[in-house]
Amino acid sequence: MKLFDVMYQACAQMGKLYFGNYAIQSLSPFSVRDTTIRINEGDYKGGTFFALGFNKTFTIENIDANGIITFRDSNVATTPTDLSYAITSMDRSTLLNAVNTALVMMGEHTTFTDIDVTATDQREFVLDSGIVPVKLEFFNYHNETYGFTFTNSWSWDLSIKDNQSVITFQNRILPDETAKVRFWYNAPHGLVINDTDEINPDYHTRRLVYESAYQGYFQFLAREQNSSDRDLMMFQTLIQERQAMANIYPVPRLLHKITLPRN
Fold it and tell me: Which CATH number fits domain 109-187: 2.40.50, 1.10.40, 2.60.40, 2.40.30?
């Protein structure tokens, strides 16, 4: 699932897409013409053009009455075999913000990182700020002094000191000993900006589409001084479907009981 796909499907759920086919006028700069579109001068100006053959979005500079569409910063290197497109009056920045806001609203997902750690004088492993582990996928510890190695994913405890995660083990660990550990933890989704940016599969596509459509319509209504009954009814429909999707497709997360900091 890529950012392009989510923005495209979110616009469809908002009822703000027009579909058509185009002929290429120029590749550098990229401009196209749709001879069948019925349009007035300046319609869709500032909106978003989904070039389905490129899987790429373009910001519309202008559309004239002859159906010629020009774009901003739109040089492309190849010619697509599929010349179909979708177009919306919503600007790309609104769509981008809607998707990223939806990812935040959907909550944290579980991810992991592999870290080389060194025991402190208190025989603890201190992790980087921002990582609160909920699971150890593996723990490989080699005692240089006594020459033994053990693997144990269960005999560990977590505390928080100075906003850093501190791991202790039931097994005897000496100061300055090293270990390779895979820590699983919950984190918010990273920012997506480019059309090809991947979205973590923990965020179910159908739910994310409705969450993004809700956020996009919310921004649209906030800018409109006079909202039509159609807009309000569509927004109410999106709210209901968004709530249903939240129950059906929650973001999977690992849970762990975090102990209080020790004295």
Answer: 2.40.30
